[in-house]
């Protein structure tokens, strides 16, 4: 039996300037840098992981700051929007904060009965905040160094996939444990005229929306590299891998990513999907209190530290006390 995914595990994107990326996602948006590392397939670039206070599954937005890559364009075969949950009534706070920090944002829209605030990060990556009721037993832990708890981001809400031919992907999502829960006309979206929502059983990152489009795109700064889904244990992941394979797709063998174990495949529309385990977790090699405090080089890369550090741009992680001093 295949254990259904609970939803999104993490989303990985492409950035340009690493310092600008850190400043925006830590100070402006108030997410915690839970891991400062390198791209294990390209150790010449950083890999930043931003999440809730404890780096829980379903909360981490990660980035490869490939400084020499050109700007991307969102189009078919991509994750076109990444949405985060925020507590009900907090969008006024976020609009004021975006005004203060010079963040480009759009008008609020209503989608499936929820209020959505679209905005962009410094590379033009399309992001959204969605107001939801946060239950008392919610598994996320807000990080409050820059943003108060009552307004803090509480993990993923959803991703939107732009696809030229959605039916096979819809079937794949159902195989992974998502259920189709509704369709409505798109609003505030340049592509397609119909949005279909699929929901997983979990409480964080539970939604995947599909919008049909033939809008052309290209990978680069300001685009999503891949989206990972939760397969908490090796057994869950192995079963899901077999289920995906039975659909005619070609998932990779399991790859050890140090903080989780991963399987990758491109779904029928071209979006790169990942299956990721819950363990060992971001605190497996750093104390919880020190997450993101140093450059972590997993496995064989530690022996190349001097060479790797020499090739990376110097960065400073934003701290609340530093921001207050600047004021």
UniProtKB/TrEMBL annotation:
<keyword id="KW-0223">Dioxygenase</keyword>
<feature type="domain" description="VOC">
    <location>
        <begin position="7"/>
        <end position="132"/>
    </location>
</feature>
<protein>
    <submittedName>
        <fullName>Ring-cleaving dioxygenase</fullName>
    </submittedName>
</protein>
<dbReference type="InterPro" id="IPR004360">
    <property type="entry name" value="Glyas_Fos-R_dOase_dom"/>
</dbReference>
<dbReference type="InterPro" id="IPR029068">
    <property type="entry name" value="Glyas_Bleomycin-R_OHBP_Dase"/>
</dbReference>
<keyword id="KW-0560">Oxidoreductase</keyword>
<feature type="region of interest" description="Disordered">
    <location>
        <begin position="308"/>
        <end position="327"/>
    </location>
</feature>
<dbReference type="GO" id="GO:0051213">
    <property type="term" value="F:dioxygenase activity"/>
</dbReference>
<dbReference type="Pfam" id="PF00903">
    <property type="entry name" value="Glyoxalase"/>
</dbReference>
<dbReference type="InterPro" id="IPR037523">
    <property type="entry name" value="VOC_core"/>
</dbReference>
<feature type="domain" description="VOC">
    <location>
        <begin position="155"/>
        <end position="278"/>
    </location>
</feature>
<dbReference type="InterPro" id="IPR052537">
    <property type="entry name" value="Extradiol_RC_dioxygenase"/>
</dbReference>
């Amino acid at each position: 039996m295949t254990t259904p995914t609970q939803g999104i595990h993490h989303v990985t994107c492409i950035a340009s300037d690493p310092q600008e990326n850190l400043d925006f996602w830590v100070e402006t948006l108030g997410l915690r840098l839970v891991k400062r590392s390198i791209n294990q397939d390209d150790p010449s670039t950083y890999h930043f992981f931003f999440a809730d206070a404890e780096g829980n599954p379903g909360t981490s937005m990660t980035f490869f700051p490939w400084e020499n890559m050109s700007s991307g364009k969102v189009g078919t075969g991509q994750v076109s929007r990444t949405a985060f949950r925020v507590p009900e009534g907090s969008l006024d706070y976020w609009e004021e904060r975006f005004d203060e920090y010079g963040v480009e944002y759009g008008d609020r829209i209503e989608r499936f009965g929820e209020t959505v605030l679209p905005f962009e990060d410094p590379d033009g990556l399309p992001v959204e905040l969605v107001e939801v009721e946060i239950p008392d037993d919610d598994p996320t832990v807000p990080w409050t160094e820059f943003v108060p708890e009552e307004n803090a981001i509480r993990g993923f809400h959803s991703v939107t996939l732009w696809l030229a031919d959605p039916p096979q992907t819809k079937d794949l999502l159902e195989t992974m444990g998502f259920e189709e829960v509704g369709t409505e006309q798109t609003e505030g979206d340049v592509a397609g005229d119909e949005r279909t929502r699929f929901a997983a059983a979990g409480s964080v990152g539970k939604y995947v929306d599909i919008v049909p489009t033939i809008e052309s795109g290209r990978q680069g700064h300001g685009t999503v590299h891949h989206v990972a889904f939760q397969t908490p244990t090796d057994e869950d992941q192995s079963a899901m891998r077999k289920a995906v394979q039975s659909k005619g797709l070609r998932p990779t063998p399991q790859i050890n990513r140090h903080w989780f174990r991963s399987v990758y495949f491109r779904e029928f529309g071209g979006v790169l999907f990942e299956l990721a385990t819950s363990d060992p977790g971001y605190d497996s090699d750093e104390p919880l209190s020190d997450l993101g405090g140093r450059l972590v080089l997993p496995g064989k890369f530690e022996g190349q530290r001097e060479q790797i550090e020499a090739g990376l741009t110097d960065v400073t992680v934003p701290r609340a006390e530093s921001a207050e001093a600047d004021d």
